[in-house]
């Protein structure tokens, strides 16, 4: 049986075969180099994609069990996370909801649950509602959090993809909240709740209000990448937000995207909308924003970023990386360190 969206799947795999940069995203979040190498060497079909990644997932699952038997809990959690990310990569290849996508996503969740149970921090599943639809999230709370970071992921992502970022902020003493919005991850897979600009505006307000109710005595910050960065900028105007850090935000709604990506978006968006980002042309920001940008970004328009940056009030900062492209993946560790320090400085002021 040919899966729905097979043409989009083939285009996606071809991009992965032809362009090494395609894999930077996944390696940043836990996919190992040897997995990527084997995929690029051997992938010829969807079956290859699943078989190769599943084999690597099974290897890391066995590693997790082995070190768990030695009571090495943090190491076991690490390997369970890699297992989960491999399963997440399998479900991601399917652009449309179906049995296989749902099953692989559930396996990803199950592996992350095993890892969650080994963590010192409190981690729990949470839910908000948008237009009477459940949006599913994760909340991680270290002891005595100094602030809360709301992670806003790009539209073609899920909250599980950004657990590595969650862990980084938690190590620096921040609680984290991350939700799958309309068209994303669990919210899309379980409820078939698709993305529109209106729904995303409602979603961002609900997430911020939820975070403020959970952590009323500490500052709230937003962290977003690409389209998630655009919504983090929009969300920074919310009166309960102390500031936002954004990486490669999409400032213009007219964005040049690869064909495979545009096709993927067509499955998760409603009302025939051809954009996943808010209109920031008339944006009036009221809280500080920290920008990160790659000077070789061929997706986000740098001149539009400069236009927005120049009209904002004084509480702003722009950090540029000469050799980085969209997402600035190769500098992500530095970006997370700088961002955490920036949040800490704000928390100290308060």
TrEMBL record:
Pfam families: Hydrolase_4. It comes from Paenibacillus crassostreae. Residues 144-260 form the Serine aminopeptidase S33 domain. InterPro entries: AB_hydrolase_fold, Hydrolase_4. This is Serine aminopeptidase S33 domain-containing protein. It comes from the Bacteria.
């Amino acid at each position: 049986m040919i899966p729905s969206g097979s043409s989009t799947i083939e285009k996606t795999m071809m991009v992965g075969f032809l362009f090494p940069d395609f894999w930077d995203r996944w390696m940043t979040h836990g996919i190992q180099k040897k997995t990527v190498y084997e995929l690029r060497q051997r992938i010829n079909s969807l079956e290859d994609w699943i078989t190769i990644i599943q084999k690597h997932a099974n290897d890391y699952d066995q590693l997790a069990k082995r070190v768990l038997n030695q009571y090495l809990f943090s190491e076991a959690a690490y390997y369970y996370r890699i297992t989960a990310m491999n399963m997440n990569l399998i479900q991601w290849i399917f652009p449309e909801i179906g049995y296989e996508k749902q099953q692989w996503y559930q396996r990803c969740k199950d592996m992350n649950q095993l890892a969650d149970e080994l963590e010192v921090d409190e981690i729990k599943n949470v839910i908000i509602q948008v237009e009477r639809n459940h949006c599913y999230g994760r909340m991680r709370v270290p002891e005595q959090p100094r602030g809360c970071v709301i992670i806003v992921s790009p539209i073609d992502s899920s909250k599980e993809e950004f657990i590595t970022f969650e862990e980084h902020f938690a190590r620096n003493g921040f609680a984290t909240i991350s939700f799958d919005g309309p068209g994303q991850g669990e919210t899309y897979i379980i409820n078939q709740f698709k993305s529109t600009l209106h729904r995303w505006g409602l979603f961002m307000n609900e997430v911020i209000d939820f975070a403020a109710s959970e952590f009323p005595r500490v500052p709230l910050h937003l962290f977003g990448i690409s389209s998630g960065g655009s919504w983090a900028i929009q969300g920074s105007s919310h009166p309960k937000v102390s500031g936002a850090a954004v990486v490669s935000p999409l400032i213009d709604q007219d964005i040049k995207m690869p064909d495979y990506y545009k096709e993927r978006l067509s499955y998760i968006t409603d009302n025939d909308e051809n954009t996943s980002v808010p209109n920031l042309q008339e944006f009036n920001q009221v809280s500080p924003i920290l920008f990160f940008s790659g000077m070789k970004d061929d997706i986000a328009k740098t001149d539009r970023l400069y236009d927005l940056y120049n009209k904002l009030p004084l509480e702003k900062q722009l950090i540029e990386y000469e050799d980085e492209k969209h997402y600035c993946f190769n500098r992500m560790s530095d970006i997370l360190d700088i961002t955490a320090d920036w949040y800490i400085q704000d928390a100290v002021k308060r």
